[in-house]
């Protein structure tokens, strides 16, 4: 026989006191991040929350986001989310990277295409993967380095986006080596000239980025 319907009154239903705040924070995070697949992103969000890991949340609402499987879907905001989640270790495993990429509702074929730019084993140096992602965003070495500085900087948004010159040079050399049109001598000459103009070992956008010409100084 079917079980009789059970009636509960409000006093009988226990609501965990932390539930309203959890749902409020989740809703705010979803609105800010605008995931293409809410269920997929939600699964990653609550898994990260349960494990005490950095949450897959953008700092602010950002457009566009991935809407089709053929879109790269990648934005500076999403790369910044990945940086918060992965930069605590020098290297990130491909398996972990795939999970975090999927949580952000990004097409997996684009991740694999990105990794083919510099084939690796079971893991990749995080800062190099970040640089590869920036190269996908930028379309040029100049723009890629701009994105890289803006993601890595501790300066407030809209500020000079300063990062250590040694880090800048390391990634500039790395991306230059992946571009067959850029000669090693030209790279070293540029970095040597640039180093003379930076102060306190830090480099910002104003030191190298010329958006009007879309070229690198000097």
UniProtKB/TrEMBL annotation:
Signal peptide: none annotated. It comes from the Eukaryota. The keyword Protein transport does not apply. It is found in: Cell projection, Cilium, Flagellum. Its main location: other. GO terms for biological process: sperm capacitation. One of its GO terms (cellular component) is motile cilium. Keywords: Cell projection, Cilium, Flagellum. Belongs to the ropporin family. This is Ropporin-1-like protein. It comes from Octodon degus (Degu). The gene is Ropn1l.
